[in-house]
Write a structure and sequence with these properties.
The chain has about 90 residues and is α+β, with helices and mostly antiparallel strands. The radius of gyration is 14 Å and the shape is globular. It has a single domain, classed as 2-Layer Sandwich (Phosphorylase Kinase, domain 1), CATH 3.30.200.20. InterPro entries: Kinase-like_dom_sf, Prot_kinase_dom.
């Protein structure tokens, strides 16, 4: 994870997940990282999102670039839509 994402840290909010901007060290390209905390009791439920996203290959859906599973977090690294609302970015595709 450290070779790919630079300075992505989880804040202690009460939200279900946190989204952070991150940069690929090798290319400088910007992505978004969705950081989802989990406990062993809900790990399989949380991993379903990862399984679905990795099976999707459609130009109208933001692509999953990387995923990391740690003992406490699932980190999904996906394309970053900039400049306008997500809905408009998807419509333009």
């Amino acid at each position: 994870l450290e070779s790919f994402v630079q300075h992505v840290k989880l804040n202690k909010y009460q939200s279900k997940f946190i989204v952070r901007e991150c940069r690929e060290n090798a290319t400088g390209k910007i992505y978004m990282a969705k950081i989802i905390p989990y406990i062993q009791e809900n790990k399989q439920e949380i991993l379903k999102e990862y399984e679905i996203l990795k099976s999707l290959h459609n130009e109208k859906v933001m692509g999953l670039h990387e995923a990391y599973i740690t003992p406490r977090y699932l980190v999904l690294v996906a394309e970053y839509c900039t400049g306008k609302e997500l809905l408009y970015s998807l419509i333009d595709r």
